[in-house]
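Quick log. Single chain, no ligands specified.
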Amino acid sequence: MGFEPGQVIVHRNTRRGRIAFARPVRVVSDTPLGLLVWLERHSPAIGEVSADGRGTRGMPFAEWVTLDYTHRPGTWMGPGILMLFPPDADHSVWWFWTDEGVFDSWYVNLEERGVRWDDGAVAGIDVVDQDLDVVVHPDRTWEWKDEDEFTERLGFPDHYWVADEAAVRAEGRRVVKIAEAGEFPFDGTWTDFVPDPSWELPGLPDGWDRPPVPR
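-> predicted structure:
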């Protein structure tokens, strides 16, 4: 299943069959290197929250697992992000820039590999974010991110969506070796990326809430 450059698709994170968030992204390219998409600042977003509007990071996980959830519309207020979903890999790589357009870092988002779907009028890619991440700086030094969150949630195996801590860490270490060696995608590719100025801010298409793809 391939996507076309310029196509708007939905990037979704799922948790045990629930949609944690959904955001429209623009396809930059879809090649054997992977699916490359652009998330524009101020894009509409849908996120899973508790009845009082808090997300998973707004409370201890021990509290989160006792609550009911709903979806709340919002806006992506972070910077514009370029995201690569390599084929057959349990991570994506994100490119971050400063507000002045200077390349800032790569972000390795450890996740169950993306599963694509296409319903005709709406299409997308579903991942399962595994919370532990790796930040790679321009000099290719690196550090783990969100280890405390990852460790806390592992204490609730009946509710957490990560089943194998060792596999997640092994994937992170595997990608770190690629980064330290300066190999693609940590070789400077796309660090000078500028989105097409003709791209309009995409909306979140109807059908974004279709059931997650079974894994």
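The beta strands are 8-15, 18-31, 34-39, 44-50, 69-75, 81-85, 91-97, 103-118, 123-136, 142-145.
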